[in-house]
Automatic annotation (TrEMBL):
It holds the Pfam family FixP_N. InterPro entries: CcoP_N (IPR032858), CcoP_N_sf (IPR038414), Cyt_c-like_dom (IPR009056), Cyt_c-like_dom_sf (IPR036909), Cytochrome_c_Oxidase_Subunit (IPR050597). Residues 259-296 are annotated as: Disordered. Keywords: Heme, Iron, Membrane, Metal-binding, Transmembrane, Transmembrane helix. This is C-type cytochrome. Residues 180-259 form the Cytochrome c domain. Residues 280-296 have a biased composition (Polar residues). It comes from the Bacteria. The chain crosses the membrane at residues 24-47, 113-136.
Length: 296
């Protein structure tokens, strides 16, 4: 029984593969259409050939004109032969050079026209290049191109750095060891922060920024967050709408450098005592420098 079922399935599968659509009437119709199309094409070819024969017999003048038109078609082989300076083998006797050696004769084949055109065009290009770049200076030379590329690269670098600076937030801000950000942040501090914290950070309306006491943390990340979001309940406005993240990073770095500067008339300490990381890093660096000098 299983064998019969397997045979039936195999037959059905083969039938579907043979007929394609599974519907025998549709398959027969498609085959018939293909046959009809082939027959029509063959008939058209036969009629075309018969019409040509009729024209040749009844209208020889028209047939002659058609042959002339065919003869006037572009002879690509002749053009290629002319460009490559090819000569038919029958004309080799006209190209033979008088001398021969051991029965071997040499042909005087001219240089192909395309090669001469390419050769003279390179000479022309060289002369024009020399005049444009080295005689009249109309085009930039290599040094000028290098300077231009360097200027473009520097501009792209500054744009990238500016964009990168604006990607800083309170979780990624770090102390700038080079002091570049702090130097730029001084002007921002004097323009926006000095009115409340004093020109030297000694404090006024706002707390003292030079001692070891901080109300909201003395880490660079804490300072960045306070400047960015402010402390509205204590009168500290948020600066995120006024300053860019890069500018907040600069002024935060400058505030960190104020720790331990001991300005005159400092405000009383507020908050909790926190050892600023900037001072700790500076002390460690100084200790390492002294140790290195002693070793020397």
């Amino acid at each position: 029984m299983n064998t019969l079922l397997l045979t039936a399935d195999t037959t059905a599968t083969a039938s579907e593969w043979a007929f394609g659509s599974g519907n025998i009437y549709n398959d027969i119709l498609i085959v018939a259409l293909i046959v009809v199309m082939i027959a029509l094409l063959a008939s058209a070819l036969v009629v075309n050939k018969a019409m040509k024969s009729i024209i040749n017999l009844t209208m020889p003048q028209l047939a002659t004109e058609q042959q002339v038109k065919k003869a006037k078609k572009i002879n690509w082989q002749a053009i290629a032969a002319k460009l490559l300076s090819l000569r038919p083998i029958e004309e080799e006797k006209d190209l033979e050079i008088e001398h021969e050696y051991d029965g071997i004769k040499e042909l005087d084949n001219p240089v192909p026209a395309w090669f001469n055109a390419l050769f003279y065009s390179t000479i022309t290009f060289g002369v024009v290049y020399l005049l444009v770049y080295h005689v009249f200076g109309w085009g930039p030379n290599q040094d000028q191109e290098y300077q231009r590329e360097m200027a473009l690269a520097e501009k792209a670098k500054q744009e990238f750095l500016a964009q990168s600076a604006n990607l800083i937030d309170e979780s990624t801000i770090e102390i700038d060891a080079t002091g570049t950000l702090a130097a730029s942040g001084k002007a921002i501090y004097m323009a926006n922060c000095a009115v409340c914290h004093g020109n030297a950070g000694e404090g006024g309306i706002g707390p003292n920024l030079t001692d070891e006491y901080w109300l909201h943390g003395g880490d660079i990340k804490d300072v960045f967050a306070v400047v960015k979001y402010g402390v509205p309940e204590k009168g500290m406005v948020p600066w995120e709408q006024t300053l860019t993240p890069g500018q907040i990073a600069e002024v935060s770095n400058y505030i960190i450098t104020l720790a331990g500067t001991n300005p005159p008339n400092p405000k009383d300490p507020q908050g909790e005592k926190v050892a600023p990381k900037a001072n700790v890093e500076t002390t460690d660096a100084s200790a390492e420098q002294v140790t290195a000098e002693n070793e020397v």
